[in-house]
């Protein structure tokens, strides 16, 4: 056998094996280190702080858990959220994340490491990303071999698609969920391969953990049954499948029903019916197989087949009937809107309004996955080439996840693992082929072992066993006659290779071409690392609570308006003062200012949110009764017009209007907030309704004064504002932060003389009331 | 009161045969003569929307004349007529409580001026202003229909139903071509399946389907569908500005680039090693490596157009 470059031949196999396993361990620990390190940009650039919105609630709940123990947490009723309704936190939350941090906290304190709970929360996501890398390694190892596994682990460790949800401080359910997802899938593949009830049970336990941690568990609930169903349809039913699926489903479902927030959903909602249906189908098929193996009569087998089909149909009809009767809840809006993409915008604007529920444009895919996005189809094709049972899983996962990721930006997270796995398979195959030192034997001498190969090849057209990978001598063949030069015919020949009997040795001639391909691949990987580092540092490491801007000389300027305002609230207002804001800021107000809020990011009550939307979009006179009835003392708005912060409330305003319109269609109409020409403007040409709305007034109140008589400009919307700003009669400006991002207004109490506040204001300013107006405008605003 | 009398008088003038009739009867007659859809002019508009009306009305403001070049008007008009037509099917008692009418700009520009309308088509729903059907909120002003759901008749009928005594019985017309196609297609597919069995069972058919789906999805196809993004920007401009935006044509280009890059990898992995002539193999390896380099550079340069701050570039 000729080799392209010299390899040592006198090494004992055990040395090679030991060295390889040591290298694997070293590589995995380096990958874990890289995964953790690349997520620490946020801590280094800013500080150890909880990010964004939802994490603030998780953090607050974890603090309760750590301080008061699990039972207190479990029975926690939070009267300050959704004022005046309150929220039963223990029953409406996925407790997995908080429980995980709580356990870590208690272990660390038990061994006398007094780590602050905040630091545990901040660093939980990076820590779990190392575990994700490890579980992806295990998963990919089952698909190909450990070297592909290492590549996959490295990819998932630094792929921005996953980093975007797991930087330090991003203390959200996804932080631990992706590890659980990959590990459950790994256990499922292992259980399926070995027919092992043990691995099936481990998969069920981790499935339970996943159910307790993230609403995205439904993805597993449908992926595994889908895989099983496809296997059955392809005629690949086996006892291994039966054992694996039954143990996973039975234990996993019973366990998942222990989570209060999930409860009886696994037997009563459509999302979970697929899993139940496949479970039933497997029982029928298994029973059929059993009877068939014991009975010889032809007629009986026919009868059996018919009865299996009839039972299956009856089951389907029963399902349809129960759904129709309302015994089985139809798909919930969030999931339904994945299929009918126009559904959410029409019926549940709250879901449609969330920015991470928007469809994904291609630059986001490239930004999050870079070269993996085009290496991954190649990996999927390679899965098709072998098509063992576990490869089908990757194929189904690839199709489903790429659809979901296209519909919703946030589901890019579920696509990332499969992209990493599939592209690792592709790249590992490429490197295997071109690093392998064996040179193919010359052309003429390969006719003698033809008969041997053909006996292997006749083992069914798709038989995966036919290609048992025997190290470097995989005997697959292209029909020799077909090698005519045209690339396409080559491709066809290669794809037919598994079926045809003739064989040649495959391989690469020469050293230079090896160097070219390997060098090119290393270049791709190096570029990927640069890209990931840049993306992580620039795009995904901002806490969004603290903003950074850089001056013309490159110096960094920290904008800390949010915390400034929240701490103002905390220190200057009564502890039970109700603060109204749009729901985005509910968790932050609760977490940082510790004040009751009307609505927050747990968007469970549409009417309550619409009430806030209505108050914000109505005129002062109409909003005041709403405010007083809800005991609102302070209103908080986010205004970016001064420094150009584009995520402010005026830009979100149309969603408030839309959500309010959904509940009060005859009082709030979206079209009233546009100019006659259909534009959304805030300057002189803004519509009357827009100018009178509470949101507009609160945002631009006294804004014109800043410009000392000159023309004020809104830097977000690039529009010049009227020289005379809006006036407020029912509210007082209480606080405006340094850069005007957060503005807080105090709601005035009723006039002591019983006048409405508008005429009271006019009186105190010395304006004379016009004659002819009704003399008494007293009315009880609050009963 | 004066206004009502005046408009009643005008209506009387315009319909000389209806002597001493109530305004409601006048409107009924108008509706009958228009076959359920009243074509309004300045006088009859005042009659129909009189502040003492006991009936409700839905009025379409449009500009159908070819010289106005109002394409949306032409698009919306048939939908409007279909809804108005469906209202004729309800029992007479309820039917006479709600009217459908159309104002064309060229018939009555003064109405457009009075209402300050600068665009068309527009639909206003007028609730009853008097009588027992007057809304409880006391708001009797016209309410504009929001075209946010497009020009389709279905949502329109749904919204108008809030103003009518009984819901508008509008049903989507059955698309006979589609229905007959489906009826023909089902047996045809079943029949074909007998012959196409080997194709359906061929893994490479499925592989191609899978890959095409993934490529199209990861090129932003769903974004274009959901946002109804245009095919291109016109004037040869096919790349939409901005990181969160794209045109339909980009899906094709990007999917093609991704596909070609994937294909090059596959050629290097699956085909080239089977090449038995060293020189030919060498050419192929250099060829596909070159394709990867060039196409990847093209991809990165397109990405740099989308994301101006992107600091990296390859050969291009």
From TrEMBL, chain A:
How does this chain sit within the bilayer? Multi-pass membrane protein
Question: Can the keyword Glycoprotein be found in this entry's annotation?
Answer: yes
* Keywords, in A-Z order: Endoplasmic reticulum, Glycoprotein, Glycosyltransferase, Magnesium, Manganese, Membrane, Metal-binding, Transferase, Transmembrane, Transmembrane helix
Pathway(s) per entry: Protein modification; protein glycosylation
Q: List residues of the STT3/PglB/AglB core domain.
A: 576-634
Q: Transmembrane segments in this chain: where?
A: 21-44, 88-108, 120-140, 146-163, 175-191, 197-220, 241-261, 273-291, 303-324, 365-384, 391-413
User: Which subcellular locations apply to this protein?
Assistant: Endoplasmic reticulum membrane
Asked if Endoplasmic reticulum is a keyword of the record, the answer is yes
Catalysed reactions, as listed in the record: a di-trans,poly-cis-dolichyl diphosphooligosaccharide + L-asparaginyl-[protein] = N(4)-(oligosaccharide-(1->4)-N-acetyl-beta-D-glucosaminyl-(1->4)-N-acetyl-beta-D-glucosaminyl)-L-asparaginyl-[protein] + a di-trans,poly-cis-dolichyl diphosphate + H(+)
Instruction: Describe the location of the Oligosaccharyl transferase STT3 N-terminal domain by residue ranges.
Output: 23-422
**Stored Pfam families:** STT3 (PF02516), STT3-PglB_core (PF21436)
- Any single biological process term in GO: post-translational protein modification
Q: So what EC number does this one have?
A: 2.4.99.18
- Region: Disordered; residue ranges are 438-470, 761-783
* Enzyme's top EC category: transferase
Q: Which cofactors does this protein require? A: Mn(2+); Mg(2+)
Tell me which InterPro entries the record gives: Oligo_trans_STT3, STT3-PglB_core, STT3_N
The job of this chain, per UniProt, is described as:
Catalytic subunit of the oligosaccharyl transferase (OST) complex that catalyzes the initial transfer of a defined glycan (Glc(3)Man(9)GlcNAc(2) in eukaryotes) from the lipid carrier dolichol-pyrophosphate to an asparagine residue within an Asn-X-Ser/Thr consensus motif in nascent polypeptide chains, the first step in protein N-glycosylation. N-glycosylation occurs cotranslationally and the complex associates with the Sec61 complex at the channel-forming translocon complex that mediates protein translocation across the endoplasmic reticulum (ER).
Protein name (record): Dolichyl-diphosphooligosaccharide--protein glycosyltransferase subunit STT3
The protein's organism comes out as Crepidotus variabilis
UniProtKB/TrEMBL annotation, chain B:
Example GO biological process:
protein N-linked glycosylation via asparagine
Task: List keywords of the entry alphabetically.
Answer: Endoplasmic reticulum, Membrane, Signal, Transferase, Transmembrane, Transmembrane helix
Which SUPFAM superfamilies does this one have? Thioredoxin-like
Show the taxonomic lineage.
Eukaryota, Fungi, Dikarya, Basidiomycota, Agaricomycotina
Membrane topology, record value: Multi-pass membrane protein
Principal subcellular localisation of the protein: endoplasmic reticulum
List where the protein spans the membrane: 179-197, 204-224, 253-273, 285-305
Return the similarity comment.
Belongs to the OST3/OST6 family.
Cellular localisation: Endoplasmic reticulum membrane
Any idea which GO molecular function terms this record carries? transferase activity
Q: Name one GO cellular component term.
A: oligosaccharyltransferase complex
Keyword Signal appears in the UniProt entry: yes
Q: What is this protein called?
A: Oligosaccharyl transferase subunit OST3/OST6 family
Q: What is the documented function of this protein?
A: Subunit of the oligosaccharyl transferase (OST) complex that catalyzes the initial transfer of a defined glycan (Glc(3)Man(9)GlcNAc(2) in eukaryotes) from the lipid carrier dolichol-pyrophosphate to an asparagine residue within an Asn-X-Ser/Thr consensus motif in nascent polypeptide chains, the first step in protein N-glycosylation. N-glycosylation occurs cotranslationally and the complex associates with the Sec61 complex at the channel-forming translocon complex that mediates protein translocation across the endoplasmic reticulum (ER). All subunits are required for a maximal enzyme activity.
Q: Which residues form the signal peptide?
A: 1-20
Pfam families of this UniProt entry?
OST3_OST6 (PF04756)
């Amino acid at each position: 056998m000729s080799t392209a470059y010299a390899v040592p031949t006198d090494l004992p196999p055990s040395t090679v094996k030991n060295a390889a396993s040591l290298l694997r361990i070293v590589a995995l620990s380096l990958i874990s280190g890289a995964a953790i390190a690349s997520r620490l940009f946020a801590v280094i650039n800013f500080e150890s702080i909880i990010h964004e919105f939802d994490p603030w609630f998780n953090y607050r709940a974890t603090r309760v858990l750590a301080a008061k123990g699990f039972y207190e947490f479990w029975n926690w009723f939070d009267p300050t959220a959704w004022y005046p309704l309150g929220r039963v936190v223990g029953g409406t939350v996925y407790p997995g994340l908080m429980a995980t941090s709580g356990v870590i906290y208690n272990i660390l304190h038990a061994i006398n490491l007094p780590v602050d709970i905040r630091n545990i929360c901040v660093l939980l996501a990076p820590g779990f990303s190392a575990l994700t890398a490890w579980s992806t390694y295990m998963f990919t190892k089952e698909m190909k071999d450990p070297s592909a596994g290492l590549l996959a682990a490295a990819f998932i460790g630094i792929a921005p698609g996953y980093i975007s949800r797991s930087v330090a401080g991003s203390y959200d359910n996804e932080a631990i969920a992706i590890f659980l997802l990959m590990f459950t899938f790994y256990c499922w593949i292992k259980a399926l391969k070995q027919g092992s009830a043990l691995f099936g049970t481990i998969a069920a336990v981790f499935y339970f953990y996943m159910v307790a941690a993230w609403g995205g568990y439904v993805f597993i609930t449908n992926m595994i049954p889908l895989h099983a169903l496809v296997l059955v349809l392809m005629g690949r039913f086996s006892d291994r499948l039966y054992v694996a699926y039954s143990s996973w489903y039975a234990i996993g479902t019973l366990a998942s029903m222990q989570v209060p927030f999930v409860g009886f959903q696994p037997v009563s909602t459509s999302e979970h019916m697929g899993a139940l249906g496949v479970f039933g189908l497997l029982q029928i098929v298994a029973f059929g197989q059993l009877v068939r193996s014991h009975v010889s009569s032809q007629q009986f087998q026919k009868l059996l087949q018919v009865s299996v089909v009839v039972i299956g149909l009856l089951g389907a009809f029963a399902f349809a009937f129960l759904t129709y009767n309302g015994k089985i809840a139809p798909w919930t809006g969030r999931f339904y809107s994945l299929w009918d993409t126009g559904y959410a915008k029409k019926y549940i604007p709250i879901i449609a309004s969330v920015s991470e529920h928007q469809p994904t444009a291609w630059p986001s895919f490239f930004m999050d996955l870079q070269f993996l996005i085009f290496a991954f189809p190649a990996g999927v094709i390679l899965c098709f080439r072998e098509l063992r049972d576990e490869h089908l899983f990757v194929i189904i996962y690839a199709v489903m996840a790429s659809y979901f990721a296209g519909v919703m930006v946030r589901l890019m997270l579920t696509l990332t693992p499969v992209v990493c796995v599939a592209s690792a398979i592709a790249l590992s195959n490429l490197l295997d082929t071109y690093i392998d030192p064996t040179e193919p034997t010359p052309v003429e001498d390969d006719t003698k072992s033809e008969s041997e190969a053909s006996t292997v090849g006749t083992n069914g057209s798709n038989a995966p066993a036919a290609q048992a990978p025997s190290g470097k001598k995989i005997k697959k063949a292209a029909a020799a006659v077909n090698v005519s030069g045209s690339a396409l015919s080559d491709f066809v020949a290669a794809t037919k290779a598994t079926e045809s009997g003739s064989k040649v040795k495959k391989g690469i001639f020469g050293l230079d071409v090896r160097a070219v391909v390997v060098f090119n691949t290393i270049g791709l990987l190096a570029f990927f690392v640069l890209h990931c580092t840049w993306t992580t540092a620039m795009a995904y490491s901002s806490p969004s609570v603290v903003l950074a801007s850089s001056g013309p000389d490159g110096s960094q300027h920290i904008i800390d308006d949010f915390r400034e305002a929240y701490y103002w609230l905390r220190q200057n207002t009564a502890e039970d003062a109700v603060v109204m804001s749009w729901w985005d800021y509910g968790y932050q107000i609760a977490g940082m200012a510790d004040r009751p809020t009307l609505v927050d990011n747990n968007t469970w009550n549409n009417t309550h949110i619409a009430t806030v939307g209505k108050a914000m979009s109505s005129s002062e006179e109409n909003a005041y009764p709403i405010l007083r009835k809800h005991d609102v003392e302070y209103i908080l708005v986010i205004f970016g017009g001064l420094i150009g912060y584009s995520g402010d409330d005026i830009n979100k305003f149309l969603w408030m209007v839309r959500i309010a319109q959904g509940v009060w269609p005859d009082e709030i109409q979206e079209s009233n907030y546009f100019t006659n020409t259909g534009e959304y403007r805030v300057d002189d040409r803004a519509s009357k309704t827009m100018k009178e709305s509470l949101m507009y007034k609160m945002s631009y109140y006294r804004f014109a004064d800043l410009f000392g008589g000159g023309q004020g400009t809104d830097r977000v919307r690039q529009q010049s504002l009227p020289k005379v700003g809006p006036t407020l009669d029912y509210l007082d400006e209480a606080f405006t932060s340094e850069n005007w991002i957060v503005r807080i207004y105090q709601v005035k109490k009723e006039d002591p003389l019983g006048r409405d506040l508008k005429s009271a204001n006019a009186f105190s300013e010395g304006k004379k009331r016009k004659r002819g107006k009704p003399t008494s405008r007293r009315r009880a605003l609050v009963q | 009161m004066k206004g009502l009398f005046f408009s009643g008088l005008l209506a009387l003038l315009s319909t000389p045969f209806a002597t001493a009739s109530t305004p409601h009867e006048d409107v009924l007659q108008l509706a009958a003569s228009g076959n359920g859809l009243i074509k309004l002019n300045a006088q009859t508009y005042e009659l129909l929307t009189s502040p003492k009306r006991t009936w409700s009305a839905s009025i379409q403001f449009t500009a159908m004349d070819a010289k106005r070049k109002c394409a949306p008007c032409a698009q919306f008009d048939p939908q409007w007529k279909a809804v108005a037509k469906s209202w004729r099917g309800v029992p007479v008692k309820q039917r006479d409580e709600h009217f459908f009418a159309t104002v064309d700009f060229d018939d009555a520009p003064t109405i457009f001026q009075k209402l300050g309308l600068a665009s068309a088509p527009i639909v206003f729903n007028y609730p009853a202003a008097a009588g027992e059907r007057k809304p409880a909120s006391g708001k009797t002003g016209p309410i504009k229909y929001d075209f946010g759901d497009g020009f389709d008749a279905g949502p329109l009928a749904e919204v108008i139903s809030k103003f009518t005594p009984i819901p508008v019985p509008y049903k989507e017309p059955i698309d006979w071509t589609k229905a007959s196609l489906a009826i023909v297609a089902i047996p045809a597919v079943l029949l074909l399946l007998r012959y196409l069995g080997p194709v359906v069972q061929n893994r490479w058919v499925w592989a191609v389907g899978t890959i095409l789906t993934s490529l199209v999805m990861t090129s932003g196809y769903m974004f274009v569908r959901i946002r109804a993004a245009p095919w291109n920007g016109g004037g040869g401009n096919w790349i939409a500005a901005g990181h969160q935006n794209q045109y339909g044509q980009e899906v094709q280009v990007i999917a093609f680039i991704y596909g070609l890059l994937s294909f090059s990898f596959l050629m290097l992995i699956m085909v080239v090693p089977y090449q038995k002539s060293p020189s030919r193999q060498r050419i192929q390896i250099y060829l596909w490596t070159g394709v990867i380099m060039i196409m990847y550079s093209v991809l990165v340069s397109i990405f740099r157009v989308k994301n101006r701050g992107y600091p990296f570039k390859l050969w291009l």
